[in-house]
Amino acid sequence: MCYLMNSMKPWGFLILFILIISGCATFSKKEFRSRFLKVELSNRNQFNGKYSFYAKRSLGLMIHDSIMNKINLYQEIVNEPQGIHDVVLQNLDDEKDYFVKIEWYHQDSVLIALYEEDQMIRDTALSGIWKKGVFYMDNRFLECNGIPYLLGGCNHNKRRLVFTSESNLIVNTAVSNEGAFLFLIGSGYRMNRYIEFEKLN
User: Which runs of consecutive H residues, i.e. helices, occur in the chain?
Assistant: First the structure.
């Protein structure tokens, strides 16, 4: 690896830098631009409350019903390791009602809590930043293998919370799974996923 880096010409570093930057996940407003409600710090508390556990719908990207029926708000925001979250799902009771409660506190933090009926069974506090009426969360995921963008690749995803004029919540996840082989053969994909959840009260 050191020999490779030392033998690279200046333009090689430039190409590597461009590939890494271009491979990052990037957000797009394409599917919610017309319904987007800009939230200010002064009125964000009006979006505290209960939201549907399961998704109301997917915007833009067509997702098969068998997958949509498993998408839930808690996991969509928190992004727990799937093995851990699978255990949570296995313990859910089909006869009971579930919802997710969102509560903003301080200037840059949100509490996400999963409820079974009126009992909280799981919660997570996340930090982030408000920017142009949207909450960008800090819980990004980045995993690389091999020599990224040379003989390997990177999987990167990040998420933000968007509110609609109906007070519903859209979780916008940007995903990038990119790779390259000696700068010549590219592989992978980039996408934005928009999942809407209904405000219950």
Answer: 2-7, 10-22, 65-68, 73-78, 82-90
CA angle 52, 53, 55 (to 5 degrees): 75
- 54: which DSSP letter? B
Cα 50 to chain center, whole Å? 20
CA 101/CA 21 separation, integer angstroms: 36
Res. 193: pLDDT tops 80 = yes
Residues 75-113 have pLDDT tens digits of 999 988 778 888 888 889 989 999 999 999 988 899 999
Q: Which residues pair with 131 in a beta bridge?
A: 134
Torsion, CA 107, CA 72, CA 192, CA 15, rounded to 10? 80
CB atoms within 10 A of CB 127: 12
Using alpha carbons, select from 167, 171, 45, 194 the residue that is nearest to residue 110.
45
Q: How far is CA 158 from each of CA 2, 94, 192, rounded to the nearest angstrom?
A: 31, 31, 10
Single pTM value for the model: 0.77
